Amino acid sequence: MDNPIGAWADDYRPQFLSILRIVTALLFLVHGTSKILGWPETSMSFPPPWTLFWIAGMLELVGGFLLLFGLLSRPVAFLLSGEMAIAYWMIHAPDSIFPVINRGEAAVLFCFVFLYIVFAGPGPWSVDEALRRKRIADGPDGYYESGRMIADER
């Protein structure tokens, strides 16, 4: 027997996956703009180039932007999940193993939301999905699939 309780929500699952990705990307993007662009300015703004915090800020800025639009979502989410795991164990965990004590809740949540996006995909409201639909619509005679691109390059 089907479970009618909450079944209505199944109809909106794909759209809410996109909403989860978009909101998470916006929150993550602000960490990058804060570090790299100084907006909003925090104690971590403007780290010296090529330091650990600068690299993290660049990942947050570029990765957050790509995830916001859902472009290259799965590989970007995988990379950002790893960044957050490293951030937790290098920055937060030395103070305490417990996130509530070491203030690492955001790193843990970002890590697992990004990991979820790796497996669930970006949702229907994404550039990745639009490109996938275009490839399906073009079929085997599409520009890339037909070999025309290779022939055009000669």
From TrEMBL:
Q: Which residues cross the membrane?
A: 12-30, 50-69, 76-94, 106-125
Provide a GO CC annotation, any one. Answer: plasma membrane
Q: Which InterPro entries does the annotation name? A: DoxX (IPR032808), DoxX-like_oxidoreductase (IPR051907)
Q: Where in the cell is it found?
A: Cell membrane
Which keywords accompany this UniProt record?
A: Cell membrane, Membrane, Transmembrane, Transmembrane helix
Which family is this sequence assigned to? Belongs to the DoxX family.
According to Swiss-Prot or TrEMBL, what is its membrane topology?
Answer: Multi-pass membrane protein
What protein name is recorded for this chain?
DoxX family protein
Q: What is its main location?
A: membrane
Q: Offer one Pfam family short name for this entry.
A: DoxX
